Amino acid sequence: MEVKDAVFVMSNQDYNKCPAPNIPEVAFIGRSNVGKSSLINMICNNKKLAKTSSAPGKTQLINHFNINNNWYLVDLPGYGYAKVSKKMRAVFEKMIHEYLQNRPNLLTTFVLIDSRIPPQKLDLEFINLLGEWGIPLSIVYTKTDKVKTVELQKNWAAFKKELKNNWDEMPPFFFTSSAKPKGKDDLLNYIDEIIPLFEY
Ligand code: GTP
Ligand code: MG
After folding, report:
1. Which residues are close to ligand 2, an ion, with C-beta < 5 A?
2. What is the DSSP string of 129-180?
């Protein structure tokens, strides 16, 4: 699949106000600054579509984009950003959790993981939470241009080992770099594969 048309639809704090779930959608989530918005721009061939920033905490709302007039792509706020107040973090967490649990059209949640670091408790906890809720997920390693192959393999092996504690089956996984760019076709082909799973 190629993204021929990517249009910003709306931003929301409240899942109730998101577009009607009448076409399939996929969401991008992960720690603040992991590269969600950059990855979205990479797969949509548009550097200005989703707002990116070197300072964490840029995306603060649920952002819907309509792709090829056929499916929604959703950019979510990052989790675990230490510098926001406890109160604000609770607001983000509620927003994300309610969104994830109330979108019957959500075909997969791409959980982005920074390829440069060993497995993080926060990411594993989030993945396990999705599992508990029965929300489909895929794992996307980001910023692979910034890590040596051996280091990447080591981090990924350790991550898989952690996942095996709770998961019988490995979720689909992807290695990406928005800077290089890398992984675009793999992600788009996967989305293309799962879109027919949506029941109109
Ligand atoms: P929040 O919205 O703040 O949660 O962040 P985000 O996950 O959307 O991250 P964003 O895409 O804004 O990127 C954060 C920073 O990482 C920016 O400075 C990007 O330029 C950089 N970045 C993102 N992806 C890559 C990548 O693949 N390679 C490199 N080298 N840098 C990247
Ligand atoms: Mg963002």
Report:
1. 36-37, 58-59
2. HHHHHT--EEEEEE-GGGS-HHHHHHHHHHHHHHHTTT-SSPPPEEE-BTTT
Residue 89 host element (H or E): helix 86-101
Ligand 2 centroid from CA 78, angstroms: 7
Mean pLDDT value across residues 37-57? 91
- Specify the ligand 1 atom closest to the Cα of 75: 8
Ligand 1 nearest-atom number relative to CA 181: 27
The tokens for 83 are 């510098």
33 CA → ligand 2 middle, Å: 7
Task: Name the CATH superfamily, with its identifier, for domain 6-197.
Answer: P-loop containing nucleotide triphosphate hydrolases (3.40.50.300)
pLDDT digit string (tens) for 90-148? 888 999 999 999 999 999 999 999 999 999 999 999 999 999 999 999 999 999 999 99
| Domains of the chain by residue range | 6-197
Residue 178 CA: which ligand 1 atom is closest? 27
